[in-house]
Amino acid sequence: MNRLQTDTVNGIALPRDEAGNLPVVVQVKGEAALFSRPELKVERVSYPVMTPSAAVGVLESIFWKPEFHYRVVAIEVLREVRQFTVRRNETTDVAPLAEAIRGTRRVDTVAHRDQRNAVCLRDVEYRIHAHLQPSGHADKPVAAYRDQLRRRVRKGACFQRPYLGTREFSAEFFWPNDTPRRHEYTEDLGIMLHSIHRDGDGPARMEWFAARVEHGVLHVPERGLQLDLPDAGTA
Questions:
Q1: Which DSSP state fits 204?
Q2: Any idea what the CATH number is for the domain that residue 53 is in?
Q3: pTM confidence score
Q4: DSSP 36
């Protein structure tokens, strides 16, 4: 089966996987969300919609195994984009990603606490469409993992409480319903994080893509581009 084959479901062109399956669908909502733009590091400003990396985080909170990974292909926006501003406690001492993964660096959040403004989203709801892609050491067919994810979504079971961009904004997840998406919403969102790849102890490699919401749907390409974003204050 050609992995680029697509079908139109409820007006959305969705790619099938190598076995010919359409993506699994999970609906999420929350009272607030913060999907930080990477180019604005001093004050947190959210993208107007959920990012693919945040969607993967929600799915992994529901069901995760090292034998597969999620590839988000589309995110439907189900509610009007509404923003609010809040002051949040953050730390100015951030461990390098490699040290944080290994657990070799301890961050003193009390000594380096700072208050910053954040532009967040209020009353959000999305439908996430994603494929489960098996790893080389997977010991079951991908259909088995898909069924396990669906059962957990129906039961409301999760590995840990999912959240929408930041841990204080928890998410509810449930079986998708017929809530209409915001067909009138179309917007260019700029450069957005596509995925993070970690190869052993080396530095993480990030891929990005030019994000655009078209009639209430953010389509995510199969692959992004590796870009070097400027540090804060150099843009």
A1: P
A2: 3.30.70.2660
A3: 0.83
A4: B
Q: List all residues 6 or more positions away from 144 whose beta carbon is below 8 Å from its beta carbon.
A: none
pLDDT per position as a tens digit, 10-46:
889 899 988 888 999 999 999 999 999 987 766 789 9
Contacts of 11 (CB under 8 A, 6+ apart): 215
Return the closest-CA partner of residue 76 out of 222, 181, 184, 187.
181
Number of domains in the chain: 1
CA angle (117, 39, 105) in 5-degree steps: 80
Tally Cβ neighbours within 10 Å of residue 162. 22
pLDDT digit string, tens, across residues 83-132: 999 877 666 556 665 665 566 666 665 555 667 788 999 999 999 999 99
Residue 90 backbone zone (phi > 0: left; psi -120 to 50: alpha; other: beta)? beta
Residue 58, Cβ density class (10 Å: 0-12 exposed, 13-18 middle, ≥19 buried): buried
Tell whether 73 is covered by a domain.
yes
Q: What range does the domain containing 35 cover?
A: 24-87+120-219
